[in-house]
Amino acid sequence: MQTTYFYNMLLQFFKYHGTGNDFVMIDNRLQTFPKNDTKLIEKLCHRRFGIGADGLLLLENDILSDASAATVDFRMVYYNSDGNESSMCGNGGRCIVAFAKKLGIIADRTTFIATDGLHHATLLENDIISLQMKDVDEVKINPDYIFLNTGSPHHVTVVHDLPNYDVKTNGAKIRYSDLYGKAGSNVNFVSAKSATHFVLRTYERGVEDETLSCGTGATATAIAMHAIGKTKSNQIDLDVQGGKLKVSFEKNGEIYQNVLLIGPATFVFKGEVEI
Question: Does residue 95 carry a catalytic annotation?
Fold first, then answer.
């Protein structure tokens, strides 16, 4: 039975993007946003009937975790544009750090918690944010693809003629294949520009389309290219449809640690919407 929700309120929102991966950002520290209303979230993210975004993020006080309030500045809650709460979003993580700075919650460094645990971040010059991602302790290498989890699951495959590749069709086939079951996976298609520079296009589950950028996907792709020997460097440049990202890491045995996703987090506008 579907729940029907009724509201009569003005909702203040902020719009941010990280290399074209765009988000509706809401300050929910007072717990006023109806976060169980998936239809509302889907509508707010709709590009014709709402604000328009790849996802929606709530910034909340960290009242649910066991982490010390003295060390955690806020909690990040992320929803895909289909209205469902999802796993970690790297570009969204950088954007919510910029949002927390705009709200006066943090200065130039922060520690926050997301669905995959604690994250540290540093605000650099020109809206660039360095976000520490989770350690990666398993990289599954197969003949045609690599699979790993960087806070979200990612399938990575090398393709030729990437500019003309049908990302939406081929990405959907893999995302909905028996390989990943009902939960599915994000799907990344990559080609090399040099030994330290790659070009990336991503099909995102929950959006069910190609997005202009995917932060956890860029992180997964950089580590995957290192794992299969396409690069020996631990500092990787990635061109995505919406701009440029950098990923750095350290490898300790089989574990990739101190993984940093570095790129811009850009404020677009703020507004109010009646719900």
Answer: no
